[in-house]
User: Which sequence fits this backbone?
């Protein structure tokens, strides 16, 4: 099942990433429109603001080595590398995304092989007399079997990739494994509403099934379920938050941006899976409106 799902995800992003970059740019994630969701913003600025707000919420302070799980074409990876003068590794299932992210890293002068300024990988660049050279590198890898030694990273960043994982516990376990003691895990993922009041109705289950089919998702959990998993894995200082209201306007903006000749022409070139996803944007829009879809945050420390 995981192998088939990985192939579907790979094909989906191989086909759609070029169009997304053409229409939207390098960031393949929600935007932040203020805590109440009412702040009007240019779409790319809203996406940058989401990154900054997440880093502030999770109290991320000068990580040295960062893992970006589900890196897309490197939008967050390059941003984090530059912001923290850090060594960032991004992984994705899509060879097209990895190649494009690598190209963007080269164009930004962040490819590995340049001599770092200041201390080496094991040092604390925050106290160095010279700034480190930011590095961003990318590879095709499976998040359920991360190809890195134990305790390799100070910070593991997962922005809207957890929903793709067929085994949520294994995914979080792998993130825990590669974190250094004291390192932070920040996961931001699509969730469904909590189940403490009532189980999902048949209509809600069908709505979710339609989203799963279109966006190559095995299933999603509620945020309290993710928190429970984090406790079983011995994470410490676990915090969660629901930012659904702050990001919900994103889907209105996406739908508006899809209604132009450039986007339509790009959709036709990208193939049926991308067309189907575009035609189904309203699923996410209505999911937020009804309260079924939630934008969940979880931060924890090893």
Assistant:
């Amino acid at each position: 099942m995981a192998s088939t799902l990985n192939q579907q995800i790979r094909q989906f992003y191989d086909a759609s990433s070029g169009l997304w970059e053409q229409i939207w740019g390098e960031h393949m994630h929600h935007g932040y429109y203020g805590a109440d969701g009412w702040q009007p913003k240019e779409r790319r600025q809203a996406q940058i603001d989401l990154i900054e707000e997440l880093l502030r919420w999770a109290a991320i302070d000068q990580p040295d080595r960062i893992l970006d799980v589900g890196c897309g074409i490197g939008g967050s990876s390059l941003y984090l590398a530059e912001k923290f003068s850090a060594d960032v590794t991004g992984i994705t299932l899509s060879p097209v995304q990895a190649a494009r992210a690598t190209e963007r890293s080269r164009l930004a002068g962040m490819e590995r092989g340049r001599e770092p300024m200041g201390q080496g990988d094991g040092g604390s660049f925050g106290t160095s007399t010279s700034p480190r050279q930011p590095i961003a590198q990318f590879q095709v890898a499976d998040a359920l079997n991360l190809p890195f030694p134990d305790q390799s990273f100070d910070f593991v960043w997962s922005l809207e990739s957890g929903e793709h994982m067929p085994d949520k516990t294994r995914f979080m376990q792998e993130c825990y494994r590669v974190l250094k003691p004291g390192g932070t895990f920040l996961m931001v993922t699509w969730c469904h509403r909590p189940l403490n009041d009532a189980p999902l109705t048949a209509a809600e289950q069908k709505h979710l099934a339609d989203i799963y089919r279109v966006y190559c998702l095995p299933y999603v959990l509620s945020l309290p379920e993710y928190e429970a998993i984090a406790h079983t894995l011995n994470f410490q200082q676990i915090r969660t938050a629901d930012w659904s209201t702050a990001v919900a306007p994103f889907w209105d903006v996406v739908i508006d941006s899809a209604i132009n000749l450039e986007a339509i022409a790009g959709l036709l070139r990208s193939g049926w899976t991308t067309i189907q996803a575009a035609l189904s944007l309203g699923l996410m829009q209505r999911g937020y409106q009804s309260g079924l879809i939630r934008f969940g945050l979880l931060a924890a420390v090893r």
Q: What stands out?
A: The chain is about 45% helix and 20% strand. The chain has one domain: 2-121+129-301. The first helix runs from residue 2 to 23. The radius of gyration is 19 Å.
